[in-house]
Write a structure and sequence with these properties.
Elements: E1 2-3, H1 13-17, E2 28-31, E3 39-44, E4 52-57, H2 65-85, E5 109-110, E6 115-120, H3 133-150, H4 167-180, H5 189-200, H6 202-205, H7 207-213, E7 220-222, E8 231-233, E9 239-242, E10 249-251, H8 254-264, H9 282-295, H10 302-306, H11 308-328, H12 341-357, H13 360-370
Parallel strand pairs: 1-2
Antiparallel strand pairs: 2-3, 3-4, 4-6, 5-6, 7-10, 8-9
This protein binds 2-acetamido-2-deoxy-1-O-phosphono-alpha-D-glucopyranose and magnesium ion.
Length: 371
Amino acid sequence: MFVSQNKQNMTPLTAILDKFELQGPVLEVRPLGNGLINDTYKVLTPDGCPDYVLQRINNAIFTDVDLLQSNIEAVTGHIRSKLVAAGESDIDRKVLRFIPVKEGGKTYFFDSKCYWRVSVFIPDSYTYQTVDPHYSRFAGEAFGRFEASLADIPDKLGETIPDFHNMELRARQLREAVQADPVGRMAEPEVRAILGEILRYEEKMCLGERLHREGKLPKRICHCDTKVNNMLFDAQGNVLCVIDLDTVMPSFVFSDFGDFLRTAANTVAEDDPEWEKVAFRHDIFEAFAEGYLQGAASFLTPVERENLPYGTLLFPYMQAVRFFADYINGDTYYKIKYPDHNLVRTRNQMALFRSVLADMDYMAEVIAKLS
Ligand code: GN1
Ligand code: MG
């Protein structure tokens, strides 16, 4: 059997897998995907048995794994029962299924150092780092529907990362990082210039929290990590399901609308160093907005609709603030591949922010036409 594992002092992956109720022997375990938070592996078994996805949950970020997994079980259970009620076929391709451990029945295992979980791998499914307008429309509808289908979930979901998309908190965390300057990066003139630009827009970008305090903007169950690559498509380009459910929690709808466009409507990847090439793609925006407004039609309020352009602007800004704070803090949160990776990501996201900012009127017109 081939097992690729390079972390030292870790329990062997096969020993971890042995704790779960898997069908069939494990043939091979190999790294999967490119998430910035958890470690993910694909687990291969013989023909006739399902393959699996094994994940080491980043417990420094998700500190309450029990809450995390009960949220995920509630969400997948609710979606599954709706698919059953609607008489859908192929349900195991349309919602994730997590495997219980042999002892105790929880859907995670703690090996005294790390937390692990296993879900069924959905065969013949594809993730993409970029989408064309056709896929973008489907993705919009799928995320709108995802929120709509969770609007009546009976369970009360907790915040797996408290105030995850709270812009006021993110701005405060940046100020704290600047104040502490633990690795001396505030000495760099470019860093100070970026900080100046970020702070100029801070008040404007905290609109969501103000509207919420005024009772004008509700929180709903959102996915909160709607990057393009968190959606599975089949070979024909139909959306199968939404994955990476760690951050499903109450938030403003902007979370899902804005974060998808942040990755999908950027002409380049979020960490492309050639930030001069960053631009906001109108074709992707229009297609996604059309799909989303259809999927979410049953619950969106006028205030939520009108502020979708703000939500689109908010996410490159919030992501820039988060990458930048991590850079100043000495890269303790996001995985990095080279020393100034977080600074490169910040420049890129600020370039996208400027590009989206120039398109506020245009976006408002598109949304008004679609409503
Ligand atoms: C993280 O795990 P991943 O790579 O899908 C992050 C998101 C960021 C994203 C930026 C829990 O998502 O919020 O938008 O990186 N997830 C968490 O690429 O912080
Ligand atoms: Mg992901």
